[in-house]
Structure prediction request, 135 residues.
Amino acid sequence: MKIKVSRKAHFNAAHRLYRADWSDEKNFEIFGKCSNANYHGHNYELIVSVYGEIDPETGFVIDMKVLKKLIQEKIENVLDHKNLNIEVSQFKDLNPTAENIAVVIWNILRPHINKAKDLEVVLYETPRNFVTYSG
Ligand code: NI
Prediction:
């Protein structure tokens, strides 16, 4: 019997979407206000889900205390109140779109989750815009 368990988390962070090899006009055309040279912030909502068999001994798919701590240490402490472009190494040469942030989060967490379980990351950049990545 497989089941999905999820933990919600939150961080806010600043970013700028742009390509250095494009003109300001082209950046604005593609990224709109998100290309603002002085950065802007989002309140990101994160849902991390682990899918797999229930351990018959504990009744857990994953211990939520462990998942909570993992998200705090590996994601919130790294991304919260940061300028993603400047302060988070993964985005040095990678546009910090919701898509790319979700993939970075998944890649950070994956090695820490039992290989037998599936991992899914849902990231809300705004209450209406969200992306899902499961590897
Ligand atoms: Ni933005």
Summary: The mean pLDDT is 96.
